[in-house]
Amino acid sequence: MLLDEARAVLATAVQQRGTSFRDYQDPYGGRGGFLGLAKVYGRQGEPCLRCGTALSSTHRLEGRITVWCTECQR
């Protein structure tokens, strides 16, 4: 199940030409569209799109914050 989901997410990311956070461009100069499909990225404190629980986050580590739903992702 997890392997199937990981494959599906990766296939969608490839179809969307990757994730453009700042200045990423694909080989043709376009921006990736996968970030628009992110369910938790940059949404700490906001409600989970599945269950409504406020999204939790870790402290910043090397410039990154991990965000997750404490109910849906155990």
* Overall shape: globular
- Derived from helix and strand composition plus strand pairing, the structural class reads mainly alpha
Rg: 14 Å
Order of helices and strands: HEE
Task: Extract low-pLDDT stretches.
Answer: none
What layout of secondary structure does this protein have?
Elements lengths: L1 H14 L40 E2 L9 E2 L6
Output the keywords:
2 domains, 2 strands, 19% helix, 74 residues, mainly alpha, two-stranded antiparallel ribbon, globular
Summarize the structure in words.
- By secondary structure, the protein is mainly alpha-helical.
- It folds into two domains: 1-38, no CATH class; 39-74, no CATH class.
- It is 19% helix and 5% strand.
- It has one helix spanning 2-15; strands spanning 56-57, 67-68.
- The chain has a two-stranded antiparallel ribbon with strand order 1-2.
- The longest helix has 14 residues, at 2-15.
- It starts with a helix and ends in a 6-residue tail after the last strand.
- The model has no long low-confidence stretch (mean pLDDT 87).
Short description:
With 74 residues, the chain is mostly helical. It has one helix spanning 2-15; strands at 56-57, 67-68. The protein folds into two domains: 1-38, no CATH class; 39-74, no CATH class.
